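Suppose you are handed a protein chain with no further information: no name, no annotation, nothing but its sequence. What can you learn? This example shows the usual starting point.
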Amino acid sequence: MTTAIPRCAAAVLVVLLAAASPAPAAEPSPGLGQTIAPDQPVATGRATLVTGHVDIGPRYVDDQWTLLIHDGTQAQPVWRNPDDTVLRVSDAALQEVPDDPAYAFLGVDGGERVYVVPQVQKPDVVWIGWNTQDPRVMQTIDRGATLTLLGVRGPGTVTTFIQSGNFSAPQVLWRSPEPAAQPMWVEVNTHTHANWVFSEPGVYLVAVQVSADLITGEKVSATRTLRFAVGDATSTDEALAATADIAVPAAQASPGEAPTQAGEASDGPGTPLLAALVGIAVVLAIALVTVLLRGARAKRRAEREHVASAAGGQS
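A reasonable first move is to predict its three-dimensional structure. Written in structure tokens, the prediction is:
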């Protein structure tokens, strides 16, 4: 009986870990293979990116860790400074919100039109993702980097999510209405695209932090602001001139933490259910251990009584 207790406790631990562990990262979309040359330049001057392939990602500039925009919209890719770059989301991005409870996290009624930068490239809409593929970044970071949404300033909400196939549930990565910082773990040599949803036209400033542990033990971090001009009527000059003091939330993750991985289920409708399942598992574990302990005590008591009874019969 005494060996059964550790075995049961181990089994309960396995159940708890299975319930609490995040889902494995889903493959966001096919055709994302790319390599980045170490000598790709950092462009100067202002730019507005309207269509084509764009990533955000860490890069070293003059030996300083920072976050830049990788512009693959032209024949020769370059890196760009977010302060000088506007990501234009045109009216071609307008889509109706599905009349499906699975998309309630958007905070927009089904049938309403929103601006969507899609996970799968659409020829007339800018295609925005992220990567950790700069050669020096790959050589220096330990396992990966953390991309954290610190805050958004704009006329509506911004939501980023991925969905693997038409029949898989959406997996939310960032939601601007959330008051806390929202970290997302990105493995080294990763290239991912997601759906970016803007509820209203206008200028949006999106503060993003990129942080990592280096193989030297050093921690690095940088925060930059992405500039979006959403809707054909929105001025790119206004987007370039806009300023916003976006406060860093108290719950900001420190560099090197391994938060929600891109493709894993983040906080949302499933989180209370997960907490309930974990709670039930804990209660069952306690009850099981209690029953086993009581059974062991009862068995020992019966053995003592049997021994006492046998001794009394011999006297």
